[in-house]
Amino acid sequence: MSDIAAFWLDSLPQLLAGLSISLQVTGAALAIGFPLGLLLALGVQSKVKAVKLPSLCLVEIGRGAPALVVLQFAYFGLPQGGLTLSAFAAAVFALAWNTGAYTSEIIRAGLESVPFGEIEAASAMGMLPRDTLRFVIIPQGLRVAAPALLGFAVAVLQATSLCFAIALPELTSNAYMIGTITFRYMEILSLAGILYAAICVPATIAVGVLEQRLGKHAL
Amino acid sequence: MIHGVALGIPWTLAVTAAAFLIGAALGLPLCAMRMSKLPPLRFIGLAYIILFRSIPPLLLVFFFFFGLGSGFLPISAFQGAVLGLGLITAANMAEIYRGALSAIHFGQWDASEALALPSYSTYIDIIAPQLIRVSLPSAASYAVGLLKESAIASTIGVTDISFNANYIAKSTYQGLTVFGIAALFYIMISLPIAALARFADQKLRARVAL
């Protein structure tokens, strides 16, 4: 038992370095992905075909293709088109696209939950459509979408483990690396699992609590 | 090139189907535990669900394939992928069943009691058929998600769509085309599943008491 503890203690710094990269990828992907999701949600609802069709394409491909395939497409595929990304940039590109596509649906549902009467009231008061969007629809819609968005943020952290496939030294890759050297896969993968769980379990519980609280206000 | 990627379709389908069946079956007792009146059972159910939804599927699959496989229990890549994805599916299916259970009208329980049906008959004849119908749409969209998640089986060497795409992309340097084809295959497989689920949902929804 003390043997495992010593092994864990030895490898912890390398895993924490990996976790830090996982969190950086998550943060960057969310920082790009959430605004992208909002834009795509508005784009899909647009009446202008030149806006609507590309948005729909981005959403459907982002939701239809596995995140792993999008990731490999970004890292191994884009060089064919003349764009070579670093592993980190490719990871952010793929996960931001994934986040944008999925959250656009969450945000769209949130925006649609704003009662039509409020939009009518805004237009009766002579508000411009863009002001209605900015001050009436988006603030309320995002509040409804908030729990689902946070839930998705947890999923993105888990999805960073896919970056193993493009040799980004994040948590899962580092654990695997230590495993190949020491051949103690079981212990090291367990420790990596504990690290993921240490972040995701409290986050999941917090999202559940938030959902219940907001649910009360909705009624 | 298209043919090479297409060779992986049976493996993608096999991993998805096997993991889904394990999850759909294991999810039932798990849901029962989660909603049990006995605190220890309820705690174990809840802990399982939260834990398995908090660990990345890739890590869990590695855990079974490399961790268990390295000297504890000989396990093939296919078995490792199915086991890892199946256990995660069980946690998610348990939550889907729980949601569906709350959608079944409480009058159904009252009526069963009023008719003095034994409790197994209440579950098997009254609740279970409706539970399956109500949970079908969520289960189907989870299955579509699982289809895409099954791509992680390629990282431990299951020769599915992603594995073949990766192999061909690295040997031809035409990643843009190859991964485009792979993505198209995944979308093409998920469309009929979604359509079938919508069709079945319309047929079955009529047979749920409100």
Automatic annotation (TrEMBL), chain A:
The keyword Membrane applies. Residues 19-207 form the ABC transmembrane type-1 domain. The keyword Transmembrane helix applies. GO terms for biological process: amino acid transport. Pfam families: BPD_transp_1. SUPFAM superfamilies: MetI-like (SSF161098). PROSITE patterns: ABC_TM1. One of its GO terms (cellular component) is ATP-binding cassette (ABC) transporter complex. Part of the binding-protein-dependent transport system for glutamine; probably responsible for the translocation of the substrate across the membrane. This is Amino acid ABC transporter permease. It comes from Mesorhizobium denitrificans. The lineage of its organism: Bacteria, Pseudomonadati, Pseudomonadota, Alphaproteobacteria, Hyphomicrobiales.
